[in-house]
Automatic annotation (TrEMBL):
The keyword Hydrolase applies. It comes from Clostridium malenominatum. The gene is ybeY. InterPro entries: MetalPrtase_cat_dom_sf_prd, YbeY, YbeY_CS. It comes from the Bacteria. Single strand-specific metallo-endoribonuclease involved in late-stage 70S ribosome quality control and in maturation of the 3' terminus of the 16S rRNA. This is Endoribonuclease YbeY. Zn(2+) binds at residues 132, 136, 142.
Length: 167
């Protein structure tokens, strides 16, 4: 189950974008080996709100584009399919039978700014940031060059599958 909530008023969203996001998330999770019923939330905010959350949660008093809050633990360098692919989750690990993957907070205002910087569509920027965050929920990271290359490769593969390309 994917929950999408829009708490900002700066950028107008539409149902078409939400449907695309749901399809991207479901596809990414399936490709990464999530076979259980799942739950994750996506919250759209503005720059001011994401700055507040970034300061509260990470001690960084700056705006950012997206924040990911995974609920599963991953050993360094491991991703969902390497740790949990055939994992037998206990009932207490689940919420109403669903695996809680985590939360994503995305500043649509920042996505609009970055769309211009990267010279592509708002839709592409939002989709990229959603995939990026979902991969973070699944253990991917980009702190080390090798991990970064793997994460970027997965992001681009998924975007290409949906024909979301740089224009």
């Amino acid at each position: 189950m994917i929950y999408i909530e829009d708490e900002q008023v700066v950028i107008k969203t539409d149902k078409e974008l939400e449907i695309l996001i749901e399809k991207l998330v479901e596809y990414t999770l399936k490709e990464e080996g999530v076979t259980k019923e799942f739950e994750l939330s996506i919250l759209f905010v503005d720059n001011e709100r994401i700055k507040d959350i970034n300061r509260e949660e990470r001690g960084k008093d700056i705006e950012t584009d997206v924040l990911s809050f995974p609920m599963l633990h991953y050993p360094k360098g491991k991703v969902f399919k390497e740790v949990y692919l055939n994992y037998d989750f206990l009932p207490e690990d689940l919420y109403e039978g669903r695996l809680i993957l985590g939360d994503i907070v995305l500043s649509l205002e920042k996505a609009e700014e970055q769309r211009g910087e990267f010279d592509h569509s708002f839709k592409r920027e939002v989709c990229y940031l959603i995939i990026h965050s979902v991969l973070h929920l699944l253990g991917y990271d980009h702190m080390e060059e090798e991990e970064k290359a793997l994460m970027r490769k997965r992001e681009e593969e998924i975007l290409q599958k949906f024909n979301i390309i740089r224009e």
